[in-house]
Amino acid sequence: MIRHLTLLAAAGMLSATALSAADNVSMDDPNIAVDYEEDGRYFTEDGVPTFNVAEDGTVDWPTFSGFRRYHAECHVCHGPDGEGSTYAPALKNSAIDMDYYDFLDVVTNGRQKVGAAENSVMPAFGTNPNVMCYLDDIYTYLKAHGSGAIPRGRPAKKERKSEVFAEMEDACMGS
């Protein structure tokens, strides 16, 4: 009995130390908090794209679009829902911890880290319209999931896609 309780206590301590970025993120954080909205896209005070989740769980269109695009292009390496894999890191944490402009640079231009302890390559996606046309959407989706505002999986409710988003998508994809 005592051994069983000791194992449970140890497991509890391990899980308490294995905190994700979401455990330390407040929705009042200026890197997440919505300061203004423009044509259905939400921004922080610094003009960085962010997400908006209504009280009933409805996500803004860019966040939903980001979920779709992430799973079309990124999850093969970075795992479902940005949770990471043995092959590539968890992007849900990158969207919280990494500067937005650094995130854009890495996705656009790629990155290579080679050393004794690490050997990783992120390919450049700067010429892939399926990524570049939706890069802010992917970022806001990862930011929403990384902050804990939305759980894993497809968001159950979403705002409808506005004409503005449809026009931007058509223009970017060359339709």
UniProtKB/TrEMBL annotation:
Pfam families named among the record's database cross-references: Cytochrome_CBB3
Signal peptide stretch: 1-21
Keywords: Heme, Iron, Metal-binding, Plasmid, Signal
All residue ranges annotated as the Cytochrome c domain in the record: 42-146
Molecular function terms, GO-annotated: electron transfer activity; heme binding; metal ion binding
UniProt-listed InterPro entries: C-typ_cyt_methanol_metab-rel, Cyt_c-like_dom, Cyt_c-like_dom_sf
Protein name: C-type cytochrome, methanol metabolism-related
